[in-house]
Amino acid sequence: MQDDALWYEAAQLVGITNALNVIADGLGPLGAAFPAVASDAGETGPGALLGEIAAFYEAAEAPLAFRLLAHDPAYAAEVWAATRRAFSDNRLSRRLKESLAFAVSLTSRSAFGTAFHLREMRRLGVGERGVMEIIGVTQMFSSYTKIADTLQLEPDMEHIAPVDHSPAPGGSATPAPRERGAAQVKGTSRAKISKGDRRVASRASRISASPSPAPAARSAPKKPV
Amino acid sequence: MPTVRLRDASEYPEAARKLFELSSLWFNYDFAQPPAMSRVMAWDGEFGGPHGRAMKRAMGPGEFTRGEKEMVAAVVSGVNACSY
C-alpha cells in the first residue's frame, strides 16, 4: 500500500460513498415528500441512466441514491460517472472497494450504505469470514481513534512509510528532493538516509500500535489489491 | 498536547516492555520510543491485552491481506476524523 495512487483511489471512494449515503439516508425516508424516480422512467433520460446503473450492480433497479438524484438526470449522470470510476476495478479491486465502502458506511452509521455495500461485498465473493474481518477492523479502529482523541495523542510515526516520488498521472517525473535528504546524508548511514525519505504512515498504521500485535511482514500487496 | 503524560518505555514494568518489542516487530520499525498508542494500551494490561489481541485477530491475514486491512482501518480513522 505504498503507492500514492492506491490512496487517491481510496479517498475518492470514501468521498463518493459518503455522498451517496447522505442522499439515500437523508432523503429516502421522506417518502412522498421527495419520491425516488421510478426505475422504468422511460428508455431515454433518467430511465436509461438508471438502467445502466442497475446493470453495473447486476440489480433489478438502481440504488436508491441515484433514483433520488434522477430528478435532475444531467446531475445524476455526472455523479454516476464519478461513482462508476471510483468503484470500478483499477489499482484497487472492486471487491476491496466495496469492502472499504462498507466500512465507511458502518462507521458513519449509514443504514443505506451498510446494507447496500454488504450486499455488494457478498455479490463480489466476500465470504462471511471476510465480512467479519472488515467488521472487526472497523470496530477496532473505531475504538483506537476515540482513545487517541480522548487523550489528544499527537502523530508520532511520521517516518514509518516511504515517500512516493512518482508524478501525477500523465505528468513528468521530478527528481527526488535531495536537498532534504542531503542534510541527513552527511555522516549518516544508508539506513538513516532511507528513514529521512519517509513520510507519515497511514493513520491505521499509527493507531494500530497496540502493545500486543503479532509479528507480520510489512510488504506491499500485489496490484491490483 | 496529550491530556496525560506519556511515560517513557523505561517507566513501564518489564512485561509491558516486552510487548513494546512486539510493536516494533508488527511495524518492522525500530522506534526510539514505543508509539504513543502502544504506551497508552500498556498502561492497563487487563484492558490493553485483550484489546490488542482483538486487533491482532482482526488485522491478521484472512480473506483480506494485512495491507488491505490497513487501508480499511485508515478509512475508518478518516471517517472518525481522528488526527492521530
List keywords for this structure.
A: mainly alpha; 10 helices; 2 strands; 56% helix; disordered C terminus; B: 84 residues; mainly alpha
Explain this structure.
The complex is a heterodimer of chains A (225) and B (84). With 225 residues, chain A is an all-alpha fold. Chain B has 84 residues and is mainly alpha-helical. Helices cover 58% and strands 0% of the residues of chain B. At the A-B interface, helix 1, helix 5, helix 7 and helix 10 of A face helix 1, helix 2, helix 3 and helix 4 of B.
Helix share, percent of chain A: 55-70%
Report the portion of residues of chain B in β strands. under 5%
Gyration radius from CA atoms of chain B, angstroms? 14 Å
Residues in β-strands, percent of chain A = under 5%
In which order are the strands of the major sheet of chain A placed?
1-2
Task: Produce a short descriptive summary.
By secondary structure, chain A is mostly helical. Chain A has ten helices and two strands, in the order αααααααβααβα.
